Amino acid sequence: MKAFRILLFGVVCAGAAVFAVFVLFSFTKNYSIVISSDNQTQAARSLPNNSYEKIVYLDATKFFGSNLSVLAGSIIGKNILSQNPNGPQLANAQSPIVLNQKQVTQDIAAQVYTQAVKDLTIYTEKDITRVLDTQNAVAAYTQELKTISNAYLEPFRNKDISVLAALVIEQNDNDARKILLSYADASQQALDELIKLPVPDSWVTLHLELMNIISESRYAALAFLTIQNDPVRANIVAQNYQSLAKRFTAFTQALNNKIKQDHIIF
Amino acid sequence: MNTRPTVFLMRIFLTYMVCVLGLSMFSVQNAVAIYEVPPTNQEVCDGHIPPNCYTVPLFPKPPEQPSESTSAGTCSCSCSSSTEASCSCSCTFSIPIPLPVIDQGAINAITGVAGAIAKLTADISNSGEAKLQTAGIIHDSVFSYLSAMKTVCDDTMKFFGQDKCRTVVENWGNFLSDIPKNVRLKTINEIQSTDLDLRAMEMLKATLGLGQDSSADQEPFNKFEDMYLKQGTQEGWRITPHTTLGGALVHLTQQNNRNLALITQQYLDQQTDSAVEAGKMEAQSGQGALSSQECLTQYVNRNGQVVGCAKYSANMTESMTNEAIRTGINAEVNAITSATILSSGMQSQISPQQDPDTGLYTGGIALLRGLANAANGDIGMFESGPSAPAPKLVAKCSLSFTPQSKTVLVGKNATTSISIFMQNQAKLKDISLSVSDTNIISLNTTKLEPKEDPGKITQQFSVTISGNKPGTAIVTATASMQETQDICAADIPLRVTVAQACLIAPDKTDFVFPGQSDVQWTNAGMPNEQFTMKQNLKADISGTANAALQINAVAFKVSNPLIANATPDSVSISGSTPVTASTLVTAFKTGTSTLEINVTAPDKQTVLCTKQIPMAVGYRCKATRCPAYGCYPPTCQDSTPETTSPLHSCYTLKNIPRTEYCDYYTGVRLADQNNAWCIDSAPPVFANLCQNAVKQSIFAVQITTLLEKLTSVKAFLHL
């Protein structure tokens, strides 16, 4: 009888252990989500599987929705016609075509600037979801931030859009062009993820600045790629690239100040 | 017994609970350890988790990690004791946006990152490509206004009123159409000076519609074109139009809106096709008069490789006017796009401001600050900015003669052109010339001075050659470069021979004009509808003493290609004599010119004999008379005065019955059936009156002196 009890106890314990493990794995939410989430997230966030047959038209209108050069050109062209109804003043070799520079300047200022702003995606607080500044919210936010950074932007570490652009423009470097194209894709995917993140209140400024810098760097990459098609835009970007880099430098410093302030450890 | 089962069950339950709790604790501990404490964190914090730190779980790294990447986040901790509370950690994290991190102190240095950016900025801002494309885009706008007649008139009416609409279109149409004709002639020389192989050259010529007949230099049409031709011969020649823009515009003015759209599309399609063909040839040849700047929109595969060109700058006409406008308004465009593109008031709206608390730049859009910068004159679109040394490329050059061989007559001078193409910023040091036998030929110089013009990649020189005695000699040109001391050289064989005589006899009985139907006259302007005439001739060099001096070609050329051109129709060369040839003459615009007929030696350059025939082109219309007091569609009156001047007003043959045709502007009667035409000599007031009333513009050609009996002229070229 005693032996039976011991045997029964053992069987019950074994069954209970199996049951307990089953119950544990059924109700341990974090564990199961982390595993599956890891895989799903990684699958969803992996860089696009480039289709090498895909053709990309380096057309500013396709990328930005407009061509600033055409816009500026049309303004000047219209002014040329209006100011020179009789055609060029051929007798005056120094200035055969008269332009109303003041009018042209005003028109370009109004129209090119307006269009350039329209073409650039600028993120504001209206675009994101704010959450209370709790420890968990910050932890979740920074975790996702790093995940997105790793998934989409890490391949571009130590790269420089301007250097890549110079290689493309001056040496027709296909590898550099490919990286710029890849960055255009990856940065957009990063932005699509970043815009969905719940952002703690104290991180909103940084978050928006990050998104706008990514957006503008993507803008820069595409502008350089389409220099043939839209030289005015490439010009504008080139002249302001240093300013953008300066902003990025300031952002990186501010980000790390915030990390220290919030005692975040990686 | 009643309690034994209960106790037994309680024991089982308690045992179960103990097992479950034990296993659960074990499992949870392991799970949390796996999840929340990644190895990197454990290493960084060395097992001590300060109470104020919370860990950030890490997902596995993405599969694609660049080998040169650095860690995104790093922490360093210092602990005063073995307790966690004594540790202080400092972490940093960098998001790998492909932007340079700039050291404020190095911004102004033209080195490193800042230097690279500055160089790129300068390269883009000052690249010929950017300038050319911008000029082209500006031209596109002008062209679109002009070619879309309705739009033009709608828009221009807003500015000037209806009566000036047509004036704008006509004036600009003429301006645009004149340019490519002139440039096309220059293009021939450009192409001939390249290193294209013969087959590619012929293909290119065929596509460009260039014939031997128009290979000589022409006087520029006016100062403006002269200026632009001098400056525009080095960059990116585009595709020839088989249609003149001016002709298209004239035609468009005669159409209703429905046809206008159709014709415009046909025109653009035709030009695009030509552009694609020429672009292919250029790609095949690798270099030449055409450049890669023709492509406006490339398409690339996902490897970044350029697969092709989706959009070319439509045609040569556009290209030429691009150049013209770029040259013509260079100063204005430069000013607009650099110093005055924006008013200074815009800067405050778009310039980021640095937040003193966060250090972040806010309130502006960095990428757009260039507009404001430009407004302040910092860096203009086409102004010179700071630059860094360019990548070192191997400088090299190539040299060629045009033509590749030449016949020189004894006792006569001839010229040959030397073109030197420089790549990768090669700078010429000197150019020397040598002759294999100075008894046969002599040169006017043995050394050429390179031109100081860094903006040009091609330099051209002209050398005068004198024929001393019959024979063959070789001239060698050698150019050396400053940096590498490399040389490029080429030879030209020169054949010196004794000139002989030949005779050109235009056959006036075969001088055929097109049919007399009205259709022939009402659609002038489009290429396949332009008025043409045919001139046959015979050239006879019988009796030529020098058998070696065979006739090789008969070339027809209109001295002013803006008026008309001559297309070879047929040439029959049988031995040395006689030669029969004919040409088709196409008229473009009113004016006078000369049809020149040249019989050339085997080098196709040396003219054996020549004849010039005066010609004139004018307007005419049918059944429309425009007297001084207005326009009405009359039948020309017998009392309409005739004039006999071939170059002014009307000219008719004597003893020819009058018809009902009258001049478009002047209303002066024309005797059409007998080949009489008028040139445009009407006072403007009459022309304006007619323009409002007459919807059909008509070209006509007057070949005045050919209506007289032509006499054979012998031209002897002497020793």
UniProtKB/TrEMBL annotation, chain A:
The chain crosses the membrane at residues 7-27. Keywords: Membrane, Transmembrane, Transmembrane helix. This is Uncharacterized protein. It comes from Candidatus Brennerbacteria bacterium CG_4_9_14_3_um_filter_43_9. The lineage of its organism: Bacteria, Candidatus Brenneribacteriota.
